């Protein structure tokens, strides 16, 4: 809200409080660029690096500092740091607690599979991975169903923002005008209100894989 003047057609300036739409500031993060990394050269540099100072360190803190003293220059050479702006927020359903728990269990299963590769650990990882997909599908469907119940116009804006945005290459291809949704029926599945190319479950499975 700002206090400013507005001039009418007669030239009279009217002062008052006016509502002003504030733009959300983009989130700025720092990441390492892997676009042009030479993996073979990177591995060779790490193998040829002098790690003797790390072995001579006494405390854990000293070991960590000496490790970074060797690690950071190599990584900065092959994968330099860069700052990017996130204009679009991440998918809100990824903050669902069930999704987080499923992903944590999947990561543990992946670590077990890599540490002890056998049919049992591989099967456990497949089960946990599929559980993540199902948890994401449920959370995503619940998000859009709740949004559709509260505000249809906001739902279609969210669909364009998270699923069919031009910057979201993981989403489905969509051209033309958005289809007009049929009347909402309580208890119906959200997929009934989406065109085939906008089915959420298909998009999420494709994104997770």
Characterization of the model:
There is one protein chain. The chain is built from 7 helices and 4 strands; from the N terminus they run E-E-E-H-H-H-E-H-H-H-H. A hairpin with a 5-residue loop joins strand 1 and strand 2. The chain has helices at 39-48, 52-56, 60-78, 97-115, 119-150, 152-162, 200-208; strands at 2-7, 13-18, 27-32, 81-86. It is flat. The strands form 2 sheets. Strands 1-2 form a two-stranded antiparallel ribbon. Strands 3-4 form a two-stranded antiparallel ribbon. The longest helix has 32 residues, at 119-150. The protein is mainly α. It folds into 2 domains: 31-84, no CATH class; 92-208, no CATH class.
What is the gist of this entry?
This protein is mainly α and 209 residues long. Helices cover 50% and strands 11% of the residues.
Largest sheet descriptor: 2 strands, antiparallel
Strand line-up of the largest beta sheet: 1-2
On the 0-100 scale, what is the average pLDDT?
73
Class by alpha and beta content: mainly alpha
How many distinct helices?
A: 7
Q: From the alpha carbons, calculate the radius of gyration and give it in angstroms.
A: 25 Å
Helix content percent band: 40-55%
Low-confidence stretches: 166-209
Order of helices and strands: EEEHHHEHHHH
Q: What is the total tally of β strands?
A: 4
- What percentage of the residues does DSSP assign to strands (E)? 5-15%
The N- and C-terminal alpha carbons lie at a distance of 45 Å
Number of domains: 2
Based on Cα principal axes, name the global outline: flat
């Amino acid at each position: 809200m700002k206090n400013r003047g507005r001039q009418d057609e007669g030239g009279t300036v009217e002062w008052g409080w006016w509502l002003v739409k504030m733009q959300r500031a983009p989130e700025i993060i720092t990441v390492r660029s892997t676009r042009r990394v030479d993996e073979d050269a990177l591995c060779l540099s790490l193998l040829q690096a002098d790690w003797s100072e790390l072995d001579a360190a006494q405390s854990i803190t000293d070991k960590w500092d000496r490790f970074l003293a060797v690690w950071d220059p190599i990584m900065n050479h092959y994968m330099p740091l860069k700052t990017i702006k996130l204009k679009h927020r991440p998918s809100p359903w990824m903050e669902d607690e069930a999704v987080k728990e499923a992903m944590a269990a999947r990561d543990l299963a992946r670590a077990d599979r890599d540490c002890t590769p056998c049919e049992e650990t591989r099967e456990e990882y497949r089960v946990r991975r599929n559980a993540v997909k199902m948890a994401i599908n449920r959370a995503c469907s619940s998000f859009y169903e709740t949004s559709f119940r509260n505000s249809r116009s906001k739902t279609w804006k969210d669909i364009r923002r998270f699923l069919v945005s031009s910057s979201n290459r993981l989403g489905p291809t969509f051209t033309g005008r958005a289809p007009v949704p049929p009347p909402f029926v309580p208890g119906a599945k959200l997929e009934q209100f989406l065109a085939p190319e906008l089915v959420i479950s298909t998009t999420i499975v494709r994104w997770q894989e």
